[in-house]
Amino acid sequence: EPLLRPFVYLPFEHSEDMADQDESLRLFTALGDPDTLRYAELHRDIIQRFGRFPHRNACLGRTTTAQEQEFLDEGGFAG
To answer: Which segments of 1-79 does DSSP mark as H helices, in order?
Structure first.
């Protein structure tokens, strides 16, 4: 179902693997919805910049870099 596709594509969007992020962009671009594409691009840009989602660091026991902390302090996704 076309209305369910954005939900099915979320694992690609939330992956920390760049190939999955590329697939996310391909899938969301094909949907033709600028709103969902904007979020896919936002997620991809964070992975491209940091190689991971900094907001997950604490719960995964990862050390946050100074650049990641600055990003988080500026609002992270919302910044």
So the answer is: 5-13, 18-31, 34-50, 57-60, 66-73
Q: Which residues, at least 6 apart from 69, have a Cβ–Cβ distance to it below 8 Å?
A: 54
Residue 6 has pLDDT above 70, yes or no: yes
DSSP state, residue 16: S
Handedness of CA 6, 7, 8, 14 (dihedral sign): positive
CB 6, CB 31: distance < 8 Å: yes
The most distant pair of C-alpha atoms in the chain lies apart, rounded to whole Å, by 43
Q: What's the pTM value of the predicted model, to 2 decimals? A: 0.91
- Under 8 Å between Cβ of 53 and 18: no
